[in-house]
């Protein structure tokens, strides 16, 4: 009977003494004189299963002894209670068939490899324990996010990937064009004639689906997007990628408090799902990646997130005994070192709210002080800024004024202003980088290790 390691592990007693058929890849083959042991991975479970083969009992014993790490094989054998304590059962092989050989040059040998080395072998690194664990968690987190919103009646909106607007107004976009490069680069002073380009105007890959999500929130009330996002940000850090996945929920009839309430509930939901559905992976991360991870996540799940205004946060930083490389300033953005200090100070996730208007996007709602906007960043230990969100400016005159002040192209965004003209209402939303969430729940500190094929400045391999 064809089955998987996962199925066997879930009810091995029921399979005891039965003949089963497994397909997978050899992690390790320890050949002894009359016996051999293969650690087989089939992708269904974090753990491998031990295949025991025996001379005299199995055909081609000598050949099987030579099957190397990485080979694809098919095993027929009997599920047998195991004497060792590591796993409750093993497979006594009746026959083993080689499906795909793997020569000695196979880079993933049964030993510890550096993450740098594995980053050069993106197509093969997923066959290691670490990356099996990371990418299963990434999948589970993604599905948990859909579940969280779907179970609460949110409508999933597919916002465009190619757009003419810059949702964040930060100018960090990848241009989309079919014009040939030679004609594109005109002589100095000559303007590029975008009317001849594919869309008849300048277009780029989206930096956020928020603006379009707002349009849908003002009809469905509660919506979310979940898709790829692109930023031509030239920052080579452990937490920035040029292509990442973002979840952006948007809710009508909501203010900043509601925004934070939903963000907190979503983060806790995801943590709960991962702890329940990926216990082996979490134990592995706890042991080899971030000591105390499981306890950290369990604690966060049970605690209330802190809230501090940007002003309070700066005060805390300025009073700190730590010597920062960047001096914390009222009115200015937080540096990574500041975020780190704050999450330590609060010993867990903290929402920093009411940010200085000049360092935030044009669409955020002006507070009554006319100095700050109703924005929030959720900072967490390790991943830094996990979520960024805000209440949106629903007052047409305020929004128009802000767009002028910040030189946002209002021709391109006429439709966005319509949302305030026709049935506008207070509304709010946030964006969470999927990768930052995966980093947070796995303890992995480099974003390149939580994306199957990462894209970062000067790096677009595979
Ligand atoms: O703070 P950001 O730029 O906010 C927005 O894009 C809003 N439109 C969201 C909204 O209100 N709907 O990005 C949101 C989140 C960040 O908190 C971070 O988790 C992630 O997206 N993020 C990145 N993740 C990886 N690499 C990058 N270069 C990222 N830039 C942002
Ligand atoms: Mg942000």
Which structural traits does this protein have?
eight-stranded mixed sheet; 462 residues; binds magnesium ion; binds 4-amino-1,4-dioxobutan-2-aminium adenosine-5'-monophosphate; elongated; 24% strand
Account of the protein in words:
The protein is of the alpha+beta class. The chain contains 16 helices and 16 strands. It has helices at residues 5-10, 12-15, 61-64, 115-119, 122-125, 129-151, 181-184, 210-220, 256-277, 279-288, 293-302, 310-319, 336-346, 396-405, 414-421, 434-442; strands at 19-31, 35-41, 49-54, 72-81, 89-100, 155-156, 162-163, 175-176, 203-205, 222-230, 243-252, 306-309, 350-356, 372-380, 384-391, 427-433. The strands form three sheets. Strands 6-10-11-16-15-14-13-12 form an eight-stranded mixed β-sheet. It has a five-stranded mixed beta barrel with strand order 1-2-3-5-4. The radius of gyration is 27 Å and the shape is elongated. The mean pLDDT is 95. Bound molecules: 4-amino-1,4-dioxobutan-2-aminium adenosine-5'-monophosphate and magnesium ion. 4-amino-1,4-dioxobutan-2-aminium adenosine-5'-monophosphate binds at residues 167-168, 208, 210, 231, 233, 240-241, 244, 246, 248, 385-390, 429-433, 435-436.
Strand-helix topology:
Layout: H1 5-10, H2 12-15, E1 19-31, E2 35-41, E3 49-54, H3 61-64, E4 72-81, E5 89-100, H4 115-119, H5 122-125, H6 129-151, E6 155-156, E7 162-163, E8 175-176, H7 181-184, E9 203-205, H8 210-220, E10 222-230, E11 243-252, H9 256-277, H10 279-288, H11 293-302, E12 306-309, H12 310-319, H13 336-346, E13 350-356, E14 372-380, E15 384-391, H14 396-405, H15 414-421, E16 427-433, H16 434-442
Parallel strand pairs: 3-5, 6-10, 12-13
Antiparallel strand pairs: 1-2, 1-4, 2-3, 4-5, 7-9, 8-9, 10-11, 11-16, 13-14, 14-15, 15-16
The protein binds 4-amino-1,4-dioxobutan-2-aminium adenosine-5'-monophosphate (4AD) and magnesium ion.
């Amino acid at each position: 009977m064809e089955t998987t390691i996962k199925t066997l592990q879930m009810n091995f007693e029921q399979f005891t003494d039965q003949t089963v058929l497994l397909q997978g890849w050899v992690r390790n083959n320890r050949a002894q004189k009359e016996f051999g042991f293969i650690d087989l991975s089939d992708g269904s479970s974090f753990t491998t299963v031990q295949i025991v083969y025996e001379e005299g009992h199995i055909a081609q014993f000598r050949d099987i002894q030579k099957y190397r790490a990485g080979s694809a094989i098919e095993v027929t054998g009997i599920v047998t209670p195991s004497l060792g304590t590591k796993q409750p059962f093993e497979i006594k092989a009746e026959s083993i068939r080689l499906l795909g050989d793997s020569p000695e040059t196979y880079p993933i040998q049964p030993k510890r490899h550096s993450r740098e080395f594995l980053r050069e072998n993106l197509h093969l690194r997923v066959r290691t324990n670490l990356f099996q664990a990371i990418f299963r968690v990434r999948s589970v987190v993604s599905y948990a996010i859909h579940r969280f919103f779907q179970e609460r009646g949110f409508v999933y909106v597919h916002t465009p990937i190619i757009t003419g607007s810059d949702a964040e107004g930060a100018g960090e976009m990848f241009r989309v064009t079919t014009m040939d490069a030679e004609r594109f680069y005109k002589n100095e002073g000559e303007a590029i004639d975008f009317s001849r380009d594919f869309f008849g105007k300048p277009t780029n890959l989206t930096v956020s689906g928020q603006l379009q999500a707002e349009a849908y929130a003002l009809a469905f009330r509660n919506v979310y997007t979940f898709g790829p996002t692109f930023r031509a940000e030239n920052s080579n850090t452990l937490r920035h990628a040029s292509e990442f996945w973002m979840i952006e929920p948007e809710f009508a009839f909501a203010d900043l408090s509601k925004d934070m309430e939903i963000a907190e509930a979503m983060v806790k939901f995801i943590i709960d799902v991962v702890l329940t559905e990926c216990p082996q992976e979490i134990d592995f991360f706890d042991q080899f990646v971030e000591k105390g991870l499981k306890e950290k996540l369990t604690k966060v799940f049970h605690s209330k997130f802190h809230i501090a205004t940007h002003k309070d946060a700066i005060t805390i930083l300025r009073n700190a005994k730590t010597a920062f490389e960047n001096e914390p300033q009222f009115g200015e953005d937080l540096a990574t070192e500041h975020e780190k200090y704050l999450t330590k100070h609060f010993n867990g996730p903290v929402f920093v709210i009411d940010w200085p208007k000049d360092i935030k996007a044009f669409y955020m709602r002006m507070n009554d002080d006319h100095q700050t906007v109703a924005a929030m960043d959720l900072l967490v230990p390790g991943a830094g800024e996990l979520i960024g969100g805000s209440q949106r400016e629903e007052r047409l005159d305020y929004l128009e004024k802000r767009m002028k002040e910040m030189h946002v192209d209002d021709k391109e965004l006429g439709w966005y202003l319509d949302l305030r003209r026709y049935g506008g209402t207070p509304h709010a939303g946030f964006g969470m980088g999927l990768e930052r969430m995966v980093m947070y729940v796995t303890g992995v500190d480099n974003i390149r290790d939580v994306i199957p094929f990462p894209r970062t400045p000067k790096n677009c391999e595979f």
